[in-house]
Specification:
Blueprint (H helix, E strand, L loop, with lengths): L1 H14 L7 E4 L2 H29 L3 H10 L1 H17 L7 E3 L3 E11 L2 E10 L1 H7 L7 E3 L6 E3 L3 E2 L1 H4 L7 H13 L4 E3 L8 H9 L8 E6 L13 H15 L4 E7 L3 H6 L1 H11 L3 E7 L3 H7 L5 E7 L11 H7 L3 E5 L22 H4 L17 H10 L10 H10 L6 E2 L6 H8 L9 H15 L8
Parallel strand pairs: 7-8, 8-9, 9-10, 10-11, 11-12, 12-13, 13-14
Antiparallel strand pairs: 1-4, 2-3, 3-4, 5-6
Helix pairs in contact: 1-4, 2-3, 2-4, 7-8, 7-17
């Protein structure tokens, strides 16, 4: 029922301050008529609620999900009534958010004297109850104007390919399987992740599910990113064919240029190459993984660019100012990589922590191997730990810093999905749960924005 709660959050943000008492006397006959209609719709919702809970107690995930999918029309009708009530009477709105993910709704509206007395009932949000039973109901968002809808929590596969320390293929496949079983339908990879190993793992995990699971991969980092020959039709076609072979697919859902040099994007010839691959049926859509806002804006000048992959997290908020709004205006999807700033926003590190030698957090802290922003958001480890400690409050009522950090990104309407990395099934499970924690209030959001402007951005190294 995540769809239901997610859509209602907007209404709650407008009305959560209005709920004061469990009984309120009203005087409008027009409101009374609407309440009667709302009561009928609310009864329908309660029926859905009870059916889903019964199935969840039996761990019948498939049946519970089917009920939710077939009930969306009813849910939208309820939302319509709520919108009317909130708009008609801001001071006596009939909905309110209490105790985080518990919701209080109108229970009855009875005549009393010259007015109407309303009483309310509070029920836990379905999503919270289902997650407590280990059942995840996934939200899906449009990938720009491609017609594809992807899970709002998806996953990147850099970590399981290599450069993040020890990782087990068996554990990686368990994590991929768990993600797929719980509604994840989109994975991001690249030909250089373990020299194609992550692509091979995805082929194994998605075998027989190719029509349902969307894969985005990337190219150009196997060559010299500054050399125009790396982006010629012959070279890119060869990269594409190699990825298709490793993925065991006939077409790539989303083919992305992998953080190319800015001058390559300004030149623009690579986009014609991608148009040709699209006409040949080797790729369905294409996008660009960028390092800077400037690069993202250049890409938006090309109408066939369908997605931008950006570094965006509480430590890297610059895309909020211009890039994200313009991407949304152009119908371009936003994929958010490194949402936890290389693990800093999990809050689990201390300054004396040491990383394995084959972990990029050991060998690229200062940009020795590639763009410094790809590691610890460009902050450096010690400074990042210090700043993360100052953000520990975000975990209040949200279970953990990691879940809170992902939730903050999902609160941004321009974002298509977050693609955190993982090495274990446990990490997949914890990241998926981020969609269930409560959203940030306007006051909290401003506090995070002020923290970035006053305490963080002056320490970010490298262009972004």
């Amino acid at each position: 029922m995540d769809y239901f709660e997610g859509r209602l959050d907007t209404n709650f943000s407008r009305s959560q301050e209005l709920f004061g008492h469990h009984e309120t006397t009203l005087t409008s006959e027009e409101e009374n008529a609407i309440y009667k209609d709302f009561r009928m719709e609310w009864d329908g919702y309660l029926k859905i609620h009870n059916e889903v809970l019964t199935l969840s107690r039996q761990f019948d995930v498939k049946s519970a999900s089917e009920i939710i999918k077939t009930s969306r029309q009813k849910i939208e009708e309820i939302e319509g009534f709520i919108d009317e009530l909130v708009e008609m009477n801001q001071e006596q709105a009939s909905t309110a958010q209490v105790n985080g993910r518990n919701y209080c709704f109108l229970r009855s509206a009875e005549p009393k004297g010259n007015g109407i007395t309303r009483s309310y009932q509070t029920i836990p949000g379905l999503k919270t109850l289902l997650n407590e039973r280990g059942i995840i109901i996934m939200n899906y968002r449009p990938l720009g104007n491609t017609g594809i809808k992807v899970s709002e929590v998806s996953f990147g596969t850099w970590a399981i390919g290599g450069a993040w320390g020890n990782v087990s293929d068996e554990e990686s496949l368990k994590g991929l399987q768990y993600a797929i079983e719980n509604g994840v339908n989109f994975f991001d990879t690249a030909d250089v992740y373990g020299d194609g190993h992550s692509e091979e793992l995805l082929a194994k995990a998605t075998k027989g599910k190719e029509d349902d699971i969307h894969i985005a991969t990337k190219f150009c980092r196997m060559g010299d990113i500054h050399n125009k020959d790396t982006y010629s039709y012959e070279t890119v076609s060869a990269y594409c064919e190699a990825s298709l072979k490793r993925l065991n697919r006939e077409s790539i859902d989303l083919y992305q240029i992998h953080c190319p040099a800015t001058e390559i994007l300004k030149d623009g010839e690579v986009f014609a190459v991608l148009d040709r691959l699209q006409r040949e049926g080797k790729i369905r859509h294409y996008g660009v993984s960028v390092e800077t806002v400037e690069e993202g804006l250049i890409c938006l000048e090309h109408s066939n660019v369908k997605s931008l992959q950006v570094i965006f997290n509480m430590f890297r908020q610059k895309p909020l100012e211009e890039l994200l709004p313009k991407a949304q205006e152009n119908g371009v999807g936003i994929l958010v990589r490194l949402p936890l700033a290389s693990g800093l926003l999990t809050g689990k590190f201390t300054k004396d922590y040491t990383f394995e030698k084959d972990d990029h957090r050991h060998f690229n802290e200062n940009g020795e191997a590639f763009n410094v922003g790809e590691t610890f958001a460009g902050l450096g480890f010690a400074k990042g730990v210090e700043l993360a400690d100052q953000l520990s409050w975000i975990a209040n009522d949200r279970e953990s810093m990691a879940k809170a950090a992902l939730r903050w990104i999902l609160d941004q309407k321009e974002v298509t999905c977050v693609i955190p990395g993982f090495k274990t099934e446990k990490q997949v499970r914890e990241n998926l749960a981020s969609a269930s924690v409560k959203s940030f209030s306007l006051e909290e959001t401003q506090k995070i924005r002020d923290f970035y402007n006053e305490e963080v951005k002056q320490y970010i190294r490298g262009s972004y």
